[in-house]
Structures are given as structure tokens and as C-alpha cells.
Specification:
The protein is of the alpha/beta class. It has 10 helices and 6 strands. The chain has helices at 17-28, 42-48, 68-78, 93-102, 114-125, 136-139, 166-176, 181-188, 192-206, 211-221, and strands spanning 8-13, 33-39, 56-59, 83-88, 106-109, 130-131. It has a 6-stranded parallel β-sheet, with helices on both faces. It is globular, with a radius of gyration of 20 Å. The termini are far apart.
Length: 224
């Protein structure tokens, strides 16, 4: 069980050497924070986690190779107890929303004061979520609008979703729009293989063999 005196082990993923050195130095001066490792790419960080586990990862987004959102998704899938804080200069709603869906525990703009960053690290370590207040208004757009305000019938239960996840519904919408896997990957900021896997899952759940059939079913069932 966590307690306030626990040492928090941290890994940094940042491709700017000066930023990485600055963060590493600043955080190493803070009591109960230990910088275990630092990397200029996500792949090396992920490969290190089995041998060198950490509690919190500070993850840049715009990395060479695998980007920070895809890396966060993989980390949360394979190491669910690790907390990931996105630390970035990108501050668009789409980036923020994609970071949330990837499983990020925090979303922080890079000009945050180091004292505040320390508070955020400790907060997510103890189980909290922290997102820059500027982006919290975007959070409500993730949730579907209720069909009514009747507490017993807020949503139309007859509306079939084929048990698609929120992420798969987003992909299905793009499929209906005629987007290719490459275009879906670019729009959702994931790899082409990840986009292809989402489409495959959708086809299986909807019991169809191609994208056209999926699109037709989606429109007829009014599930997007």
C-alpha cells in the first residue's frame, strides 16, 4: 500500500536532450523522487520496464518512431499499474482526448513549474488523475448525450452498439466516412497496424466480412 514516505521511481521519455537533462536534474533534487531511467524514444523505455520497473513515466508526445500516445496505450496494456503523465507542448483538444483514451493518468503542458509537476507526479502515484484545467471542458464531449433526463431511461437501451468500445465507435465513424486504415491511423494518432486491428475487431463484432457491410449496418442501426 502506498504511503507518503514511499520512494517514487520515475522514468523520463523526452527526445530533447536539454529538456531531459533539466527535468532529470530538477526532479533528482526532490525528496522521495528517484529518476530510474531516461530515454529519447518510447521503444527503449517500454523494453526496459520488465527489468527496471517504475511507478511513473513522464512521456513526451512528439517522439521519433512510436509517438507518446501509442506508447502510453502499450504501457497501460502491459504494465497497468504504471502511471503515465503526458508532458507536451501540444495543447489541442484532439491530442488531449486521444491521450485520455490511451490511458494517460495526467496531461501536462511543458511550461508547468517544477513545483507543480512534483505535486502532479505524487497525485497520480497515489491514484489521482490530473489534466490541465484548460482541457477539462473537452472531457464532456467524450460522453454521449442522454436520450432523456428520466433517471431510469437516460439512454435508449434498444440502440444496438454490437458491444463496440468508445474507441471502436470512433473508428467505425471514420470507416463510414470512407477513410482507409492509413487515414484512420493519421486522424487518431495511432499506428496503421493499430487502426487495422480496430477495424478487424469491428468487423468481427458486427458479424460482417468487409468495411462496406459494416458501414451499411452502422447507418441502418444508427449507432454512430
Amino acid at each position: 500500500m502506498n504511503n507518503e514516505n514511499n520512494e517514487i521511481k520515475i522514468s523520463l521519455v523526452e527526445d530533447c536532450l536539454l529538456t531531459r537533462i533539466s527535468l532529470k536534474h530538477s526532479l533528482s533534487l526532490i525528496k522521495n523522487l528517484k529518476i530510474v531511467s531516461d530515454f529519447d524514444n518510447a521503444e527503449d523505455c517500454i523494453n526496459s520496464l520488465k527489468k527496471h520497473p517504475v511507478n511513473v513515466i513522464l512521456m513526451d508526445l512528439d517522439l521519433f518512431g512510436m509517438n507518446g500516445i501509442e506508447a502510453t496505450s502499450l504501457i497501460k496494456k502491459n504494465f497497468p499499474d504504471i502511471k503515465v503523465v503526458i508532458l507536451t507542448l501540444f495543447n489541442t483538444k484532439d491530442i488531449f482526448t486521444a491521450s485520455m483514451f490511451s490511458g494517460a493518468n495526467g496531461f501536462v503542458v511543458k511550461n508547468v513549474p517544477i513545483e507543480k509537476l512534483v505535486q502532479i507526479i505524487r497525485s497520480v502515484y497515489f491514484g489521482a488523475y490530473w489534466f490541465d484545467p484548460l482541457f477539462l471542458s473537452a472531457h464532456k464531449e467524450v460522453f454521449p448525450k442522454p436520450d432523456s433526463f428520466d433517471l431510469r431511461h437516460l439512454y435508449n437501451k434498444k440502440k444496438s452498439s454490437y458491444d463496440l468500445t468508445v474507441r471502436e465507435l470512433e473508428v467505425l465513424k471514420l470507416v463510414v466516412e470512407g477513410k482507409s486504415n492509413t487515414e484512420i491511423a493519421k486522424e487518431m494518432i495511432v499506428s496503421t497496424n493499430t487502426a487495422k486491428a480496430h477495424v478487424g475487431n469491428i468487423l468481427n463484432k458486427m458479424h460482417v466480412t468487409d468495411r462496406v457491410q459494416a458501414a451499411v449496418k452502422a447507418v441502418k442501426a444508427n449507432i454512430i
